[in-house]
């Protein structure tokens, strides 16, 4: 995947496009120059040979020939035209109009009948590349055929006074060698151009892509939460504009996030402060109303109501303080090896529930947990099931391995279950199953606190509906806690002890 | 990339000298060899007769070589003939200035001496001598032929000796 991104990356594509264009241009240029040079070179050679043959024939053949001098003329023409790499042959022209073909082997290349036929009507030439002669494969030759005109013969003895026609084969191996060296030079030049294009492309793309990379890195840093990240703006091009825009956006984002955080912190602090401020007077009020209710005796219905409501208010404030601790990150674990069976039994008996809940699980199961927080979780789940679900309420626990060894505690009831639209938000604060029940007995924070406690242990707490109906809450805690050294802070012992009483939600 | 590869392959395939079909390079050259006419002494009515034939460029002694070919039909119609038997006659100039050596390859059984049965009658020798001396700058002729006995049969000739045959 990474490799694929590299291959199809912007840099590779830019470099490839640049290089292909450069290569195409240089190959095209060298191809055109090659073709032009070759044409000029061959044209020059051909013209020289043709002109020499034409002139020789014109000069060596008289308007009227003495009888039986054909061999003399042939010798003379051959002598004049002979040169290295050339073979010349002069053959008599048959008077029946057929084409004279020189004897095989007299020239370096064979003369076709068509060539000979056309040579009797004008000067013709043909470039031939030898294919079949051993040792000469690929050798190019220029074949020229010509005869003179404008002479007069005697009427009754034309064969004695007809000049011969000539065939000349000229080796073009020198031209071929020149072309080969030209090809080599062009290939070297093209390779150099390719290399230069590659280097230039690399340099250019680096210049273009460096700001893009910097922007990408800055955007990643921003995404990771480093809101103070800025990029340096250089130049006045589009990329600089983009960097400028990015910096603006980052600054605005940082400002907004800072404000939001400050506001959130302020509101949390406010809740915590209010809760703390309420706690002291409420404690006194609870004590006082209890006394008032006792003194009123059987007639103190109103006093008992006030005492009850005041106690509920106290519970709510304790929950608020607990939640504020989680929000402030001040919640700490006091870990211990806890026997799950004993802990569950203790929780149930402390609240007077043993007869109402069926407990199943091994007696010797231990978990590394904060006993007070485990008590809070179990009390909240069981209390919730007793208050809102239907009997029978069952509590099962046992070992369960997820990513690591752990302990699972399941609390199930046979009530109506959790409505589907609430399954996802059942652990949110102040979520209640019956919206109309505005004045409920619970604080609406019990399940939230249970969930926060489970997460604090590194575990999970999930809500679902059982196959037979009824809500099923599943708590999973790792058997061994990661940071065994833990926090020795036992400061929140008090808040949890009270908050455990009423877990009610959903 | 594919286009580049195709271009490279095409360029490589089109390298070097390419063969062509048969191409025309214009009309035929017009024969325009300049040479003065030559005088060949033939025989008419048992006497020497100077016949004029076209010359060849670069062949000043062509007239002597022409003695070795049969007369043309036109000359025959005019009653001309030659006493020199058809043979190859070559000319060298290795003697003193103005003297040509004429080589013939058919001396006959009696050599180059005229007489009964000889292949070189007086008229033939006169033809050689006078034809040679008709060439500008030539003053004398040495007629040579291979001879079985002596290796070379050699006869100096002068056209003036044959004044009775003209």
UniProtKB/TrEMBL annotation, chain A:
Q: Which UniProt keywords apply?
A: Kinase, Membrane, Phosphoprotein, Transferase, Transmembrane, Transmembrane helix, Two-component regulatory system
The record lists the membrane-crossing segments as 182-204
Domain Histidine kinase spans what residues?
273-481
* Record-level Gene Ontology MF annotations: phosphorelay sensor kinase activity
For this protein, the record's CDD domains field holds: HAMP (cd06225), HATPase (cd00075), HisKA (cd00082)
**What's the catalysed reaction?**
ATP + protein L-histidine = ADP + protein N-phospho-L-histidine
Q: What is its main location?
A: membrane
EC number(s) from the headed UniProt entry = 2.7.13.3
Q: Which SUPFAM superfamilies match?
A: ATPase domain of HSP90 chaperone/DNA topoisomerase II/histidine kinase, HAMP domain-like, Homodimeric domain of signal transducing histidine kinase
InterPro entries per the UniProt record, alphabetical: HAMP_dom, HATPase_C_sf, HATPase_dom, His_kinase_dom, HisK_dim/P_dom, HisK_dim/P_sf, Sig_transdc_His_kin-like_C, TCS_sensor_his_kinase
> Where is the segment annotated Disordered?
477-506
Answer yes or no on keyword Ribonucleoprotein. no
Q: Which GO terms describe its cellular component?
A: plasma membrane
Could you tell me which residue ranges the HAMP domain spans?
206-258
Q: What class of enzyme is it?
A: transferase
Where is the protein found, in the record's own terms?
Cell membrane
Q: What is this protein called?
A: histidine kinase
